């Protein structure tokens, strides 16, 4: 779902509902607009407002959790990338090829985040992983010569396995967790609220202006929620800064040992 498109569509739906309520109030006979009917409309509106508020609050909480989880994954990845490179550096020149694969993996990770921000995750460029499995296989090919190198290889494999558990490295990810039927029902409830506003509101510029501002605020809340639910694109994006920082801090590769030398 495109957050901006959905929010604009929501705003238009809210305004149409408000104007529809004003039209109903103007065209309904006076026998239908009694005080008891107005009280009933207000009670129904309170119920819809309570349902919509609870639902919107749950959606915002879910979207915020999703955004924080993915952002934390990138930050944790950066720390593990630095630790993995440091471990391989201690192993020596025999691990240089693995360290180069790690650098290439981080570079592709940054590119993936940039591509997802521009095109979304459901593109051919982001459908496959970026080489974590190949890095793990390369580490398994190391041949430790002593207990120190055995421990370093084991530690490196553990860090690589931790990296492989992160979604942004393993597969394409998703465009959000919020399902469109859930959002459609929420918008429908809010449209009912705006119809009730229009029915009981006076037909003047102040009332219409107030309903416009409220409709705009609700549309902005939906925009913010969907933006948080899709941290790879939109106004609020998952930052690749931790990965760039990790890439800058990776140590220099050691020169390969000469033939015949240990």
UniProtKB/TrEMBL annotation:
Residue stretches spanning the membrane: 44-63, 180-200, 206-228
InterPro entries in alphabetical order: DUF4239
Keyword set, alphabetical order: Membrane, Transmembrane, Transmembrane helix
Keyword Transmembrane helix annotated: yes
One matching Pfam family: Bestrophin-like
Protein's UniProt name: DUF4239 domain-containing protein
Gene source species: Methylocystis iwaonis
């Amino acid at each position: 779902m495109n957050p901006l498109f959905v929010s604009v569509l929501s705003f238009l739906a809210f305004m149409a509902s408000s104007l529809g309520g004003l039209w109903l109030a103007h065209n309904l006979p006076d026998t239908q607009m009694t005080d008891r009917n107005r009280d009933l409309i207000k009670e129904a509106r309170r119920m819809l407002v309570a349902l919509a508020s609870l639902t919107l609050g749950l959606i915002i909480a879910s979207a915020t959790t999703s955004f924080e989880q993915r952002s934390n994954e990138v930050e944790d990845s950066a720390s593990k990338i630095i630790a993995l490179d440091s471990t391989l550096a201690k192993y020596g020149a025999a691990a240089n090829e693995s360290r180069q694969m790690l650098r290439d993996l981080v570079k592709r990770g940054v590119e993936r985040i940039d591509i997802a921000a521009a095109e979304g995750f459901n593109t051919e460029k982001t459908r496959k992983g970026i080489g974590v499995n190949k890095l793990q296989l390369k580490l398994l090919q190391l041949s430790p010569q002593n207990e120190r190198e055995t421990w370093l290889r084991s530690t490196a494999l553990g860090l690589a396995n931790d990296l492989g558990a992160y979604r942004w490295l393993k597969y394409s990810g998703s465009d959000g967790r919020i399902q469109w039927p859930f959002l459609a029902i929420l918008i429908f409830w809010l449209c009912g609220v705006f119809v009730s506003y229009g029915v009981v509101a006076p037909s003047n510029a102040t009332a219409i202006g107030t309903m416009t501002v409220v409709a705009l605020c609700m549309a902005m809340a939906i925009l913010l929620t969907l933006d948080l639910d899709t941290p790879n694109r939109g106004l609020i994006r998952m930052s690749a800064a931790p990965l760039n920082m990790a890439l800058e801090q990776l140590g220099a590769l050691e020169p390969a040992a000469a033939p015949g030398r240990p």
